[in-house]
Write a structure and sequence with these properties.
2 domains, alpha+beta, 4-stranded mixed sheet, 6 strands
């Protein structure tokens, strides 16, 4: 059985490995290009968010870090190759944990990576500069992976500038996403859950609960102005948010309980309680002018508050 107290966090493992081996390698072997490099641990993997535990060690967990390169005009292919070879020669084992010899599915997570390739993979652009449409369509978890983790150094500054640009959604995009997810919450939780049960459609009722929970989680992250990570870490991240983290327990109850008559009534009450808390936060952030308990009306009020006419007039679910 795994023991949490025997696990070293990936961020700490990576930093220690870099400090003991990586820093010296870069300083002694590549002083001429060091001013153009950046290093740290960020991107895909639970360890980059600090969510890893002993179970995480069964795959893609290793002592390692990322070395970010600028364009070939500053660091050419030959130097990149030499950096890759030097990184590969670093110790294969550290603190009793071996480095992976094969890259995980989806490509290398550690080692030498062009910044433009990293940003293209995460955002679809080589510089992280997104159009309004791209802000609406890039997966949220991918944006989270662009700005997570730790940067050890960034002499040239390109990585830090890209991370700063991508730190969070523009306000107009946040409101569009809020409006869409609020509407889904209203349709699934306040309307379709109860009606599906009245129709005798228990499967549909449970799907309505899932839709409500997914949308509610999205809304809570948007209200906290924090990217929602990949779904399997949603509850872990939700419980750590500064506001509305208490809803995590209620949402877990909705997802894990049955839909018998008495339980269904309690679940409907919980749904309305979550809706009430969210409406309160909408008012706190001056996102709605409505004063009712009908979340659909608040969704449209949020949509109407978007200053950009083109974005406001897009379908309300365009960002969901």
């Amino acid at each position: 059985m795994y023991r949490e107290d025997k696990h070293i966090k990936g961020l700490a493992l990576s930093r220690a490995y870099y400090e003991q081996y990586g820093k010296a390698m870069l300083l002694t072997q590549f002083p001429e290009v060091l001013p153009f490099l950046a290093a740290g641990l960020f991107g895909s993997g639970s360890e980059c968010f600090g969510y890893d535990d002993a179970v995480s060690e069964d795959h893609d967990f290793e002592p390692g870090f990322c070395i970010m390169l600028p364009g070939e005009d500053l660091v050419d292919r030959r130097t990149a190759f030499l950096l890759e070879r030097a990184y590969a020669k670093l110790p294969d084992e550290y603190m009793g944990i071996r480095r992976n010899l094969v890259s995980p599915v989806g490509g290398a997570r550690h080692g030498v990576i062009r910044l433009s390739d990293f940003l293209m993979d995460k955002t679809g652009t080589p510089d992280g500069k997104l159009t309004e449409k791209q802000w609406l369509t890039v997966p949220e978890y991918s944006l989270a992976e662009t700005v997570n983790g730790q940067v050890y150094f960034d002499h040239e500054g390109s990585l830090s500038k890209a991370r700063e640009r991508l730190l969070y959604y523009p306000e107009s995009v946040r409101r569009k996403k809020l409006a869409g997810h609020l509407l889904v919450m209203a349709q699934s939780g306040q309307y379709n859950y109860r009606r599906s049960l009245l129709h005798g459609e228990e499967g549909a009722a449970q799907l309505a609960v899932f839709e409500f929970a997914q949308a509610a989680i999205a809304v809570i992250f948007l209200l906290n102005r924090t990217y929602r990570p990949y779904y399997k870490w949603s509850f872990r991240a939700l419980r750590a948010l500064p506001d509305l983290s208490i809803e995590a327990e209620l949402l877990e109850f909705l997802l894990t309980s049955d839909n018998e008559k008495e339980m269904a009534a309690e679940k409907q009450s919980v749904i309305e309680g979550i809706v009430s808390d969210i409406i309160e936060r909408l008012h706190d952030q001056k996102l709605t002018r409505q004063s009712c308990t009908d979340l659909e009306k608040h969704a449209w009020s949020v949509n109407d508050s978007i200053e950009d006419g083109g974005l406001r007039n897009m379908h309300i679910l365009a960002a969901v």
